[in-house]
């Protein structure tokens, strides 16, 4: 009888980076002349990452921004620059203000550096692309139940079911309730599901219909205020809002992708996606620290040498009702062909889109001692012993900001192989972006009031990307690249100050790097040196308006490792060095300073080992160096090293995993924001999470 070999997946999963999901970026990582980090599902499960923030905060070069008055939801910095509008979902814009989960994600792709040639406006420091789970012809059901020592209970399910010879449906689910951190006022009640249907699988024409429906009822953490040049020295569990605060988000996204392959070398793809997010916010932030004298008058202080028990925190409402709508359509044509001895991998595409934004602001106003506050200040509470409690002050509607934007982009890129070991990459994109905003405040355009009632802007910009790639063998590549990007001044559709139309912020980057695949392509090593310069950065004037006079430059280096050293030993990690400088001031006294939330050094390492085929142990450190909470560098956020660990027992049908976060229970700051002088959000203390998974 002939022998029969049966191949089945091992209980341990692989950290080796999978192919990039987006054809426009490039299927082969070796042919991408920029640094890219891919976080796959196996790594997220191993680290116990349940949110987009927890999944990518361990990537060196990524820092987290906290919630503030004009922007909530996920706020990331890449390479020292804000990536607030550089979030993507399956390659389509995902700009809305909400908190993203990982229950529906197959992987996360972080492309470092300017990339307007590929993605249009934005992407100064890079882009973050979330890749949704899609149907396949393999039948499976994965069930997961988690509980943490903080009291968070989380349930997920991932069901994939073939429904014909070439069709399948997949439905991930999520529900969670409880505290997300050891800090007070961090309760959530979230649920969601992301059904998708794909037909024509394995045929020349494949069609995927997908969606995301999610409901979040969260208590957002606004952190602690600064004092004496540092985050206030208080208990890491202190929170300065009210127990009655909440943020409600309703997320509805639908999309469709049609891809037709004419042959193995020629294909065309069209994708349409509609994102609708409604967010209602009743939140209170620590605005300032001060004293209360014998007459009951509150006086703000920045430095205070006395006893902290004499200090109070002024609280400020950040209430608003936000509605985001984004409609995006992309058509891309890809072809591989030869012109004589020269090989081409050609891409041409067109993108059109529409976005609208509506933000109705509200204020709540209260008293502190004998001080009757002006609008938006709700009261005060002890710095050391905040009272929490409920607040039901009446809301008063203030500014209604409405805005909309339309854009169109046409682009082309060619990866040209001139010699077996030498390639040239060149691409160009032309964008036209038109936006208009309106504010109900100052609708009469009163002289001296800097809040404009109406603005309109049309920006035309040409983005480029080019560079050579040297590949002596298929396992190694060396590259140099030059790329540009731009950010219109009305890009975030939230501008409320400034009487003149500012030119777009423009960005350029130079990068030289190397990529190696070792151990039969099981282990990936990367390294790069880069410089990113931003021109026309927004600089505030003394009268509340802005000028485009700032320049920021970040020089850096990064190394990374991901994959499998042996069949049982896996590793993921890296180090990033950022030398950020404000060349021309983006505010009074900022020239020569370090941009906010830009640590010089950051590093992470995560490693697991499987023995006896079913037992797994692992863990590693995360390090972020000292950084500043504002561009004036008057508030310093200390660096930290945090250790996490995991242990698992894994069989074919089920596994049990224990994750322990912040083993040393160190005080560290997870997020920073420039608002209110420079707030910082402490990370969670020692926390354990037990997860039980069933595979059917």
UniProtKB/TrEMBL annotation:
GO cellular component labels: cell outer membrane
Domain TonB-dependent receptor-like beta-barrel residue range list: 209-663
Tree of life domain: Bacteria
UniProt domain TonB-dependent receptor plug: residue ranges: 29-127
Topology in membrane: Multi-pass membrane protein
GO biological process, one term: siderophore transport
MF terms (GO), sorted A to Z: siderophore uptake transmembrane transporter activity; signaling receptor activity
Pfam families: Plug, TonB_dep_Rec_b-barrel
Compartments reported by the entry: Cell outer membrane
Keywords (A to Z) from UniProt: Cell outer membrane, Membrane, Receptor, TonB box, Transmembrane, Transmembrane beta strand, Transport
PROSITE patterns assigned to the protein according to its UniProt record, in alphabetical order: TONB_DEPENDENT_REC_3 (PS52016)
Family, similarity comment: Belongs to the TonB-dependent receptor family.
Protein name: Catecholate siderophore receptor
